[in-house]
Amino acid sequence: MFQEWIKENRVLQIVLRDSLHQPQYVEKLEKIIRFIIKEKALTLEDLDDIWAAQHGKHEAIVKNVHDLLAKLAWDFSPEQLDHLFGCFQTSWSSASKKQREKLLELIRRLAEDDKDGVMAHKVSYYYYYYYYNYNNYYYTYYYYYYYTFIIIIITTTLLLLLLLLLLLLLLLLLLLLLLLLLLLLHYYYYYTYYYYYYYYYYYYNSNNYTIITTTTTTLILLLPQLQQLLLLLFCLLRKISSLFKLKPD
């Protein structure tokens, strides 16, 4: 009946809402929870609510909740104690380094107050779990960064080789273009040379032919005048000769 009343009225959820940063309030809350434990009304869901009361809160509330659990743990049933360590393991996987230190401190306190060795097995198991997961975590991240580094090196090397190959192809293309340019220049100068050679040869021969033709034509045209000139000279010479001819005695 009492259990149903506490569950229906959500007594524990109400008292866990506020003032967990005040040590005096936490002391009174400890008495309430002890009474609930004594009446065997504390459920595993209630344990989850107590554990969740510290999530996302500042250090004072985290410390007070851990102190509360360290004091109440000795009154828990084996099932409740197993569930509490299950909460430790669940929180461990997503906890930060500082939160893990606080979890280890809480576990240390549980082991420190254990005079009859009741919690020794659970604490040693949890330390083994911590060590195993820490090493797995360490090696996982070690290999993760190691292989990431190797992949980066290989990728960078491949990119550099690809870049070098592209540069070589570009250089080869430039050499081919240069060779093509040299061939074009060669053919250009070759055909230009022969063009001017034949041009000047033809022009020179054409000029000589024109000169000869012009000279011959001129001589042909001047031939009658030359004949007349020669005839005139011949007549003149006869006249002169006749003037100087001696008369007979």
From TrEMBL:
InterPro entries, per database record: ARM_UBP34_24_USP9X_Y
GO MF term set: peptidase activity
Keywords: Hydrolase, Membrane, Protease, Transmembrane, Transmembrane helix, Ubl conjugation pathway
GO-annotated biological processes: proteolysis
Pfam families cross-referenced by the UniProt entry: ARM_UBP24_USP9X-Y
Residue ranges crossing the lipid bilayer per the database entry: 144-164, 169-189, 209-237
Keyword Kinase: no
Origin: domain of life: Eukaryota
Annotated protein name in UniProt: Putative ubiquitin carboxyl-terminal hydrolase FAF-X
Organism of this sequence: Chionoecetes opilio
